[in-house]
Amino acid sequence: MRTTIALKALMAVTGIVMLAFLVLHMLGNLKIFFGPEDFNAYSHWLRTLLIPFLHYGWFLWILRVVLVVSVVGHIGSAIVLTKRDRAARPVRYRHAPPASSTYATRTLRYGGAILALFVVFHILDLTTGDANPHFTEGHPYQNLTASFDRWYVAVFYMLAVVLLGLHVQHGLRSAARTLGVAAGRQRAFAALGTALAAVLTAGFLSVPVAVLAGAVS
Amino acid sequence: MSDLMELTLRVWRQPGPDADGEMRTYTVADVSPDMSFLEVLDVLNEELAARGEEPVAFDHDCREGICGACSLVINGEPHGPQKRTTACQLHMRHFADGDVIDVEPWRAAAFPVVRDLVVDRGALDRIVGAGGYITAPTGSAPEAHATPVAKDAADEAFTAAACIGCGACVAACPNASAMLFTAAKIKHLNVLPQGRPEAGTRVLDMVAAMDAEDFGGCTNVGACATACPKGIPVDVITEMNRDWLKAAARSRKSGR
């Protein structure tokens, strides 16, 4: 794994794994609009999924292991590559080069770091409940509304979602190039990345907006 | 001759590889819009020599835009503001009287400054040395049509082979990555029947040679292709990634 292309392929594959998870996560979140029974039942179903082949809760644990491996691979390769990239230009240009990249591209690294911090808070808030004083195990609907009733939590969540959209907008296109599947189809992959980013952003934003607006309580 | 311009040049001066450098300001008067950027430096150097100062060292050779020797970052852009144009073919009609122009060398850890605006681009030669050739029997030239080349392969190879190895892609890349250069050199041989037999080892060896230098990685920004004076498309990087991943998987299987 010393070559940049291998590290970038690792980043691309782990990114796509997390992206696939996020699409399912976003679709699951939308069940909030069908009321507490549906939402809590969906959450329970995730734990009973593939029983009796798996034991209670195992599906979620397998998913968590896959995600943790992906996060570690993604961030690890990002750190190694970023260090290499920084070292490759020790003396900067006195005359700053014109902006050659999009906003999404320029915010990728810092946006990613903020996203990592958000994910830590998000798990403490809605999975373990350590950051949510009204947390009750097994009642995700009530936990979620209690969390978003704190406006600053909703604002942080929405900021993270916007950063996620930007991350995906550059990320998918970039992953397609890194894995070599986009040759001659750059535009199609760029459009797919933008569309997916827009759908994810809108879907994830709808929940805190609905809670803040009082449509979900 | 009322259209003659007076320009202020801020030029990177560095006496040697280990010396500290700085931007130094010079005024060049009577610049004709028909002069090339290198000719402005020629005029400046004549004035410096007449004053007994050291002239500005800069790389140049053919001055026809095909050799890849000139390597000036002009106002933050490799080869200056004119697209698909090398600095030697950049004419002063693209500037205006009174302009202040910053001139710097290629900035990359892999391209150490030799003096002033001259950098050592030997890293690119070492990448080519690792596989930028084909193995062929020597002797008299083979009959021209012995190996048929499909028209689209010939066109693709020619587009990649247009690379003059100037290093503007490295200079423009926010990570000082040499992916566009390396990918162009790999592709122009790998798409041709003469290059196919060694296609797998070529991509592995040349990427390894690239990684052995102090270049950064590709973040798919695309600044390289924008800066390239020969219009090498960014797609060559995608194809190199694909070829490398395939070749790496194959070489692992065969235990090589």
UniProtKB/TrEMBL annotation, chain A:
<dbReference type="Pfam" id="PF01127">
    <property type="entry name" value="Sdh_cyt"/>
</dbReference>
<keyword id="KW-0479">Metal-binding</keyword>
<protein>
    <submittedName>
        <fullName>Succinate dehydrogenase</fullName>
    </submittedName>
</protein>
<dbReference type="InterPro" id="IPR034804">
    <property type="entry name" value="SQR/QFR_C/D"/>
</dbReference>
<dbReference type="GO" id="GO:0016020">
    <property type="term" value="C:membrane"/>
</dbReference>
<keyword id="KW-0408">Iron</keyword>
<dbReference type="InterPro" id="IPR011138">
    <property type="entry name" value="Cytochrome_b-558"/>
</dbReference>
<feature type="transmembrane region" description="Helical">
    <location>
        <begin position="58"/>
        <end position="82"/>
    </location>
</feature>
<feature type="transmembrane region" description="Helical">
    <location>
        <begin position="7"/>
        <end position="27"/>
    </location>
</feature>
<keyword id="KW-0812">Transmembrane</keyword>
<feature type="transmembrane region" description="Helical">
    <location>
        <begin position="189"/>
        <end position="216"/>
    </location>
</feature>
<feature type="transmembrane region" description="Helical">
    <location>
        <begin position="103"/>
        <end position="124"/>
    </location>
</feature>
<keyword id="KW-0472">Membrane</keyword>
<feature type="transmembrane region" description="Helical">
    <location>
        <begin position="151"/>
        <end position="168"/>
    </location>
</feature>
<keyword id="KW-0349">Heme</keyword>
<dbReference type="GO" id="GO:0046872">
    <property type="term" value="F:metal ion binding"/>
</dbReference>
<dbReference type="InterPro" id="IPR000701">
    <property type="entry name" value="SuccDH_FuR_B_TM-su"/>
</dbReference>
<keyword id="KW-1133">Transmembrane helix</keyword>
